[in-house]
Amino acid sequence: MSAITTSLAEYRHQLKSNRWGLWLFFLSEAFMFGGLLTSRFYLWGDTRPPLDQNLGFIVTVVLLLSSFFMNRAETAIAHDDRKNFQLNLIITAVLGIAFLVGVVGFEWQGEVRPTDGAYGAVLYGMTGMHALHVLSGLIFIMIVFFNGRKGHYSAERHWGVEACAVWWHYVDLVWVFFYPALYLMGTVIHP
Amino acid sequence: MTQQEKKAAAFRQGIIVLIVLAALTAGEFFVARSLNGPVAILFIFAIFKAAPIMQYFMHISSLWSEEEGH
Amino acid sequence: MKTFFSLGLIRGIVSQLIVTAIGMGITVAVRVAMGLPAWKAEPAAVVGALLGAIGFMFGVGALTDWLKWMKGEETPMRHGPPKDKPAWTRYFTVDYNHKIIGVQYTVTGIALIGIAGSLAMIFRLELSAPGLQFLTADTYNTFMSAHGIVMIGGILLGVAGAMNYLVPLMIGASDMAFPRLNAFGFWVTVPAALLIVSGMVFGGWDTGWTGYPPLSARAPLGIQLFFLGVYFIGLSSILGALNLLVTVARMRAPGMTLFRMPIFVWASVATSLIALTATQLIALSFLMVLVQRLLGMGFFDPNLTPEAVAMGAPPGNPLLFQHLFWFYSHPAVYVFILPGLGIISELLPVFARKPLFGYKWIAMSSLTIALVGFLVWAHHMFTAGMEEYLRLPFSYTTLLVAVPTGVKFFSWVATLWKGRISLETPMLFVLGAISVFLIGGLTGPPNGTVTTDLQLHDTYWIVGHFHATMFGGFVFPFFAAIYYWYPKVTGRMFSETLGKLHFWLMTPSFWVMSLVQQQIGLMGMRRRIADYDPALGIQAQQVAITIAGYIIFASVLVMIYNLVYSYRHGKIAVANPWNSRSPEFQIPSPIPEHSYEQPFLVTGEPYDYGLEGSVYISIKPDIANAPVAAK
Fold first, then answer.
1. Which of A23, A67, A186 is opposite residue B37, by nearest beta carbon?
2. B26 and A133 in contact (C-beta within 8 Å)?
3. What is the CATH number of the domain that holds C297?
4. C89 located within any domain
5. Is C618 in a helix, a strand, or coil?
6. Are residue C45 and residue C185 in the same domain, yes or no?
7. Residue C207 lies inside a defined structural domain of this protein
């Protein structure tokens, strides 16, 4: 984003470094999310809390769809299609907000409370940490949207968009592992 | 290929990935429902979902591909 | 006065204070809105501290460029000292030059090590006689815990300082790959250090630096500030490691293949791999205790509420904390020692005037230590009540670490063998490091073997072992590095006499300290306690440890005096005072703003000291006629 005055060759060298930096950060974050997953298996074993599986499925589909539209937005700007870029970015953000509403507005109002033993701790720990990342992604999308409206991105130079898109997909990727761990794996015990 | 065709192909690829991911998501949901949450099978589903996301959505291969641009 | 208030550091601290107050106010407002009693210290302190640290980053100006990017503005790279202010002010302000940041890291690191050392002086005096002299048990615990964590913070900063300063110079990069991130990584450690130190004032904490629940779940308020401080230092560590890895991967000079990199670069890569990934786990484990205290999320709480029982929820488990915690905190010691061992390997050939023995083995041994280090964490838990079948595998992996470490020792001895050794101060510290690390290394395997560890666990033996590894693996090599690169950084020579005095005060004292600690550990002295039974008959040894500790402290003061005095009054240093082959010694002292006028060309092996006609780099390369392989 800052590199508008630099030469294209310099920009591309920095671009590749940026990609490596972002992916190394993903690797780092993967250990944190992995630690949460490990805690889930260590504490829950092969049981799972009584959560609404339909709600889990719906939010998962919503997040998956948002990832799809984010991919469309990135593809659009890579071909200098600004109109589609802006449109798809908005759809992504709306779906992202819908996901947050699903988790915070519905799941967190359900039967399991944060203080309910290991179920509460791990459920709120995992969804909370993930929701924070979704929130950061939404802020990122907002920034990219307003910069895009000012015409800051082109087919040659849109690292900002790419970073935002890859970050958003990463948040989806984490949910790919969190969703079955929270909603699908193991059985519900009825004491 | 013209620029227009390339763009259409890129959009089409996104749709294909979406269909695959949707099918896998529905699949894991029904497997979990009918087999009582088998951990190993659901993990395999998750890995098969993660792979196309990393390759097609996150462009992981751009890290080592020689082509420097976008 | 005006200059003073324009310093980034001062602005940062002021805005940290203001934003902390605002954060506390917000907490009160939210609690009132939720119908809770307005004031509760813990949530107010946590929210205030968290926002305050972010406030510091705004105030110091580490976020300015990124905020402009968010608005779509361009921010050209700043170079050189500030135009309208004295040159020294750039050390107290956000600066993007890796050499400045390296010095900032190093000096802050030494300051933290000094604070932590002073705390040790206080409680060591307390321990010189049985019974409680002048500290209460709680103050003792707080000081002992703070000694541990402030030291760790200081060491991390020292490591980061050396890597930041040296690695770009050694690989011929103009700067790090992400200079703004680099500055962010340094500056976030300042509010972190302030949080940890203020934690001592606001209630302190009595858990040791490990912060095990359930004790940490009911420790005084200070532990929350400690958790947050560690969280931010961890963030710095992760971002620094990321930056370094990208720098080494992408910005090496032409011809610098992986196996032509200086050995310190290899050590830095190995260190960064650990810091990048494992650090997340200590952050996570501390965050879990933080939310357990704050929101009642019982990750580590074995008690269940009636509602949870009705739901069939399993209880939390304190052992989970130890697993997560040690997954970082064991590899963390390799973060501390690998750069130190790299410095030993880097300096030995210079002062022995011989090629480094087994370069590739040394390079690979650093990586091996780092990778095996990920698989050893549970050896800290042999007595913790974890699953018994885990004991033996972790015992074996732990002993496996001795193999690559042994490779390093043999290489050092072989490098020294028949060398033309000259004993300047840096070399003395390298030899001291080897002797001390040998003590630490040999006392390691008994702790890794289950049968012996069951006896040794939590005794002063461990204290002796651990301090020997830290001094041998970090402190001695770090001091060697400071003396070795001091002329390069400042353009002045230090006083050789004072340097030698420092060494001869510190080294024998350390041997005494470490060995006696181990001895009284075997005789039954427990670690981490303020008092001990006079019937143990170890008071003479305790006095000896205390005296040795004070001599070490005094010797470090000699070094600091030496460094400060020589900065103004030392002899002007030549470009290459040690006759080194390393690239950074081929340019003037002190190093110019942009280091190398143009990229150098690597044409030979780094450590071929004493070999006729061997060349490592050519600083004014004829790129056009260079061999194809070197491009």
1. A186
2. no
3. 1.20.210.10
4. no
5. strand
6. no
7. yes
What structural domains does chain A harbor? 7-184 (1.20.120.80)
CA distance, residue A67 to nearest chain C CA (Å): 22
The burial class, CB within 10 Å (0-12 / 13-18 / 19+), for C302 is middle
Packing angle of the helix pair A159-179, A53-78 (nearest 10 deg)? 160
Angstroms from A127 CA to nearest CA on chain B: 17
Q: Are residues C45 and C154 in the same domain?
A: no
- Asked if C280 lies within 8 A of A35 by C-beta distance, the reply is yes
Q: Are residues C70 and C105 in the same domain?
A: no
Q: With CB atoms and an 8 Å threshold, state whether B32 touches A180.
A: yes
Question: Is the pLDDT score of A2 beyond 50?
Answer: no
- Are C70 and C100 in the same domain? no
- Residue A9: is it exposed, middle or buried by C-beta count within 10 angstroms (0-12/13-18/19+)? exposed
Furthest-apart CA atoms within chain B: distance in Å:
51
> What's the one-letter identity of residue C17?
L
Strands C617-618 and C601-602: antiparallel
ipTM of the complex: 0.94
pLDDT tens for C469-520 read: 999 999 999 999 999 999 999 999 999 999 999 999 999 999 999 999 999 9
Residues of chain C positioned with their CB less than 8 A from the CB of A108: none
CA trace torsion B8, B9, B12, B13 (10° rounding): -150
Backbone angles phi, psi at C457, to 5 degrees: -50, 135
For chain B, give the number of residues.
70
In the stretch 123-152 of chain A, residues with CB closer than 8 A to chain C read 124-125, 143, 146-147, 150, 152
Angle in degrees, 0-180, between the axes of helices B39-52 and B3-35, rounded to the nearest 10: 170
Chain C residue closest in CA terms to A46:
C314
| Nearest residue on chain B to A180, alpha-carbon basis | B42
C85: in domain: no
C-alpha C565/C-alpha C363 separation (Å) is: 37
Residues sharing a CB contact under 8 Å with residue C3, sequence separation 6 or more, in sequence order: C85, C86, C89
pTM for the whole structure: 0.94
pLDDT tens-digit series, residues A14-68? 999 999 999 999 999 999 999 999 999 999 999 999 999 999 999 999 999 999 9
What is residue C88's predicted lDDT score, i.e. its pLDDT?
87
Record: contact A13-B68, CB cut-off 8 A: yes
Please state the domain count of chain C: 2
Whole-Å CA distances, C448 to C441, C445, C473: 11, 5, 18
Q: Which of B37, B43, B57 sits opposite A48 (nearest CB)?
A: B37
Residue after which a domain boundary falls, among C40, C75, C110: C75
Q: Among candidates A111, A187, A104, A46, which has minimal Cα distance to C308?
A: A111
Q: Could you read off the pLDDT of C487-500 as tens digits, one per residue?
A: 999 999 999 999 99
Tell me which residue has tokens 């390079």.
Answer: C363
Q: Do the domain assignments include residue C87? A: no
Residue numbers in chain C where pLDDT is lower than 70: 621-631
Cα–Cα distances in Å, from C499 out to A18, C107, C243, C471, C485? Answer: 43, 18, 33, 17, 13
The minimal CB distance from A19 to the residues B11, B56, B63 is found for B63
Same domain, C512 and C607: yes
Own/partner long-range contacts of C464-468 (Cβ < 8 Å, ≥24 apart): C464/C513, C464/C514, C464/C515, C464/C516, C464/C517, C464/C518, C464/C519, C464/C521, C465/C440, C465/C514, C465/C518, C466/C440, C467/C440, C467/C513, C467/C514, C467/C517, C468/C436, C468/C437, C468/C439, C468/C440, C468/C443, C468/C510, C468/C514
| pLDDT at residue C628, as a whole number | 43
Q: For residue C66, give its domain range.
A: 1-75
- Does B67 score more than 70 pLDDT? no
Same domain, C525 and C556: yes
Q: Residue A80: what residue type?
A: D
Q: Is residue C315 within 8 Å of C302, Cβ to Cβ? A: yes
